Amino acid sequence: MVLLYALASVIVINCGYYILFSKFSFLTSSEIKPEKNYPVSLIVCAKNEAENLKNHIPLWLEQDHEDFELILIDDASIDETLEVMESFQVDNPKIQIVKVKNNEAFWGNKKYALTLGLKRAKNQRLLFTDADCKPASKDWLATMTAQFSEEKQLILGYGAYEKTSGLLNRLIRFETLITALQYFSYAKANIPYMGVGRNLAYTAKLYYDNKGFMSHIKLPSGDDDLFVNEAATPTNTTICVSEKAFTYSIPKKTWKAWWLQKKRHISTSKHYKPIHKFLLSLFYTSTVLFWILSVAAFVFIDWKIAAALVLFRLIFQYIIVGKAAGKLDAKDLIAFIPLFELFLVCYQMSIFISNSRTKQSRWK
User: Fold this and answer.
1) Separation between Cα atoms, residue 290 and residue 293, nearest integer Å
2) Whole-angstrom Cα distance, residue 44 to residue 64?
3) Using only C-alpha atoms, what is the Rg of the chain?
4) Distance (Å, rounded) from C-alpha 190 to C-alpha 237?
5) Whole-angstrom Cα distance, residue 216 to residue 126?
6) At a CB cut-off of 8 Å and minimum separation 6, what does 60 contact?
7) In 10 A of CB 165, how many CB atoms?
8) Which bin fits 104, alpha (ψ -120 to 50), beta or left (φ > 0)?
9) Hey, where are the domains in the chain?
10) Nearest-angstrom CA–CA distance, 68 and 135
11) Which of 103, 258, 295, 305 lies 20 to 30 angstroms, CA to CA, from 90?
12) How confident is the model over 259-278, as pLDDT tens digits?
């Protein structure tokens, strides 16, 4: 009976989180008409991204907006990144280039490079993306920044990954879906805790009021999620989930590359506010215990009772995550939700263990 009660308790906790996530999954879309007449600074930091810049600078310049500048930051690249930037600048006055030299105190630190780029921005509204990201439409810039208001100074967008064949691609996109489901839902519940630098906007005032990245400038990652964790409040944060405001990145193509990327991302979570660490840890723990106790229940108690409890939780999860997948262009992942979740639980546990033994020192 103890095992049965333990499984039921874990399922109640887990489903409580999915009720929280339903704030996003069942969110009624209220499209804000894109505004194209106020100035925006689009900021992109690039390190050894010559090929991506050749493909994506034209897409950023084609954005349907009347007044924006494109600030390109060359973070001490050793390939042709700077040359590519300069070749586009010749014929386009919108482009401003910031050349970053390696600094002994901030060697390989993206936040240092971004800080220099932010100082160059002449506009109050700032939109950020990465060099390997392409906008979903010509309305991306206008749609994202239309969310700004006197009160709303921080906009969380969705940075998706392109669909390709193979198991690795589906797992990367599933992990991205679950992460977005969480940070969008927490924001709607007035507990904003993170965003992704692939698609993020905030005002210069918010940046300077929070002293930029100074509280975590020495950490190699977190220019997006740690800044949001520190600066976001229930009143100054909103989300933008219009499909035309998505960005799409090329996902990692090898397991090793994805492993290293996730190690860097997960290492920042220990610097979140205590309430966020508690809530995220409880969700992860309840998910781990669900799978462990489910197996144990099928072995040690009546399998029919165990099956009913497990099925209830899986159906509950399918409904909430499935609705979110429909909003975030990931319907092809719905059929594999339990299998992908089980894999991610094991994968993330391995990363936590690995991170406790090693230290990340550079962003690239």
Assistant:
1) 5
2) 18
3) 21
4) 8
5) 20
6) 42, 44, 70, 129, 135, 141
7) 7
8) alpha
9) 2-25+274-355, 40-181+191-262
10) 15
11) 103
12) 888 887 777 888 999 999 99
Amino acid in position 278: F
Q: Which CATH architecture has domain 40-181+191-262?
A: Alpha-Beta Complex (3.90)
Residue range 172-219, pLDDT digits in tens: 999 999 999 999 999 999 999 999 999 999 999 999 999 999 999 888
3-state SS, residue 42: strand
Q: Is 334 exposed, middle or buried (0-12, 13-18, 19+ CB in 10 A)?
A: middle
347: which 2 tokens?
């994968």
* Alpha carbon 327 to its chain's center: 16
Instruction: Report yes or no: 159 and 90 within 8 Å, Cβ to Cβ.
Output: no
* Tens-digit pLDDT string for the chain (364 aa): 789 899 999 999 999 999 999 999 999 876 666 666 789 999 999 999 999 999 999 999 999 999 999 999 999 999 999 999 999 999 899 999 999 987 654 555 899 999 999 999 999 999 999 999 999 999 999 999 999 999 999 999 999 999 999 999 999 999 999 999 999 999 999 999 999 999 999 999 999 999 999 999 888 788 999 999 999 999 999 999 999 999 999 999 999 999 888 887 777 888 999 999 999 999 999 999 999 999 999 888 888 888 999 999 999 999 999 999 999 999 999 999 999 999 999 988 888 787 766 655 555 6
| Joined tokens for residue 89 | 């600048």
The DSSP 8-state label assigned to residue 182 in this structure reads H
Residue among 113, 109, 79 nearest 360 (CA) = 109
Q: How far apart are CA 60 and CA 58, in angstroms?
A: 6
Contacts with 126 (C-beta within 8 Å, 6 or more apart), sequence order: 40, 41, 43, 118, 201, 202, 203, 204, 207
CA distance 175 to 56: 25
d(CA 323, CA 342): 20
Give the predicted TM-score (pTM) of the model.
0.92
